[in-house]
Amino acid sequence: MNFIEIKDVVKQYDGHLALDRVSMDVPEGIIYGLLGPNGAGKTSLIRIINMITKPDSGEVLLGGKPLQPSDVAQIGYLPEERGLYKKMKVGDHIVYLARLKGVDKATAVQRMNQWLERFDLTEWRDKKVEALSKGMQQKVQFIATVIHEPRLLIFDEPFSGFDPVNAEQLKQEILRLKDQGSTILFSTHNMESVEAICERITLINSARVVLEGSVAAIKQEHKKHLYEIEQVDRAATLPTNDTLYSIEQTTRNSTLIRLNDGVASRDVISWLNEHVQLAGFHELLPSMNEIFIETVKALKS
Amino acid sequence: MNNLGLIIKREYMSIVGRKSFLVMTLLIPIIIVICMLIPVLLTKMNNESATETQQVTVIDETGSLAQAVKNTPAFNFVTLQGDENKPTDARQFYEKAGSSVDAIVVIPRDVLDKQQVTVYSENTVSPALLKHLEECLTDTLEGAKIAAYDVPELKKIMKDCEVELDVQSVKWDANGEENSSSTTAAMIFGIALSFITYMFVIMYGAMIMNSVIEEKTNRIVEVIVSSCTPFQLMMGKIIGVALVGLTQFAIWVLIIGAVVGITGLSVGGVGSDGIAAVLQAVGSINITYILICFVIYFIGGYLLYASLFAGFGSAVDQASDASQFSTPIIMIMIIALYAGMACMENPNGTMAMWCSIIPFTSPIVMMVRLPYGVPFLQLALSIVLLYATAAFMIWISSRIYRTGILLYGKKHSLKEIFKWIK
Q1: Does residue B306 carry a pLDDT above 70?
Q2: A42 at B interface, C-beta within 8 A
Q3: Could you give the CA distance from residue A54 to residue A38 in angstroms, rounded to a whole number?
Q4: What class does CATH assign to B53-161?
């Protein structure tokens, strides 16, 4: 069953259409990518799921039921524009945000201590937020996002502002939360960062959904029949065969070929085996970035 | 509702927990006390600094008036008999006396006709000396003049003729019973309440605005509104800051009460007499009635203006841009304050009536009018209008607020802001 169902959501700001009949289904327990360039409408959609704004029309179902104010306790949200009260103590701050989400005080304090320990921040508990480095503040924000153990986690550009080490730690935590059964909605304009961890994606451009599906399927759908070939004799040039393929590019160690329409890779391999000594033969799938650029270009023309 | 409580608590603690709050709360009464004490101390110091007694020579041509001039700690008078036939040459005398004399007073023989006495000195003559001479000589000269008419008991007759008019204001209440009230006390009481409302709204309204801007520049606001509604956040702020203000006021009342009590005791009879007089004067006004009205207007006025500060604060992106919106709000308040002062002259006039009904000025102007008595219908209309407008302003501000807090990095014109309300 789909955990979130978004049906024909329309949102208009001041004469500018931010979301144009957007629909999206997020199955439970996966990491779902919401992709698109800046200004495409991602944040508008996320704010609607968070009940920060209301859609002009359309509806959002959570677990099969329309969103209700009490559902905020089931959602954890790390916005792109995020910050903390600088003058508050770290521990108090986390407990305050947890209690706003409906966690009772004792539980909030207990979980806060566990999480601070997990991130090696225990000694900072009674320090003011402004004394923390930016990376540490980001960790505190992450703790505040997940401390009420929400079933749905929404991260808007989560890795911005993290250094590579902390970004990796954050990624591991997100994967761990997924294993524990949380559904994770991941919004970013950085296509590559998502490719590795998202199972399904929705691509939004100019307020419209332009692509939807599982990452693997989308890549298959957009493949260009490009193959990279390595020979044992690295200096040797690849023989041409106009009926089977065309050579796209030759580099020092490998050759890039494009298979002609209707040609199976099996036939190419057997033909090549007769003429050269193959060291490697593998398909090059397009990156999400390439797919995105191609899709947008196709829409424009 | 639980969230509203949490927000109020955080807002309250975030201000009260700061060191600057404690410092300001303690400093302001000290500054006020110092400001009140400085004039008193200066006068006292001035009197004490004149320890060096000035030597003043009085040349009395009449031969009888000099004795009326009494010595004081500051001035020592030496009387010399002047020549009755020839005008005194003060300059000549001064040169002879040298530096042992600070000033010379000449009482001419025709002083009764000319009513003039001259003081000669090389330095500027101190006002204290002039005042002292005037006090000493006027009564004596008056007495001498009266005596010159030679009417028996003329002095007593004149005393009987003196009139010091005491205008007492008596107001009939609904039953036609007399109800004397002190106009001055009423006026002071009313204007004091106006000032309290004005000060409170300006100080804590600005505090709300800063708090809104701070949340926006901190970028925390989106995290918070994913857990509660923008309306809860705004109201939590308004109520939290009001509680901060009430705490601060309570501390001040305690401190000032303690200071007045202590000085009253140490000064003794004068202080307690003064306080008793004030209490009596105030007691003649219906104090409970006015205080209840004050609380009603105070809350209504605060909500009205505080919501405006919160709403427009949300449209500001940086604290330095805040004055663009806070200035017009403060201007309205200042107009209200001036209207209130103008209404003191004529508390039942047309302007006073309208200003005490219009919601933006009524919390201040009505306080001035109340001690003089306001018809119940006007009062009821004014309160209903005030609360209706406050509710409307809270609604409008919450609509501005929920849009404004999430729009970063842009300056917004009033025109845009009005669009958000729709």
Answers
A1: yes
A2: no
A3: 21
A4: alpha beta
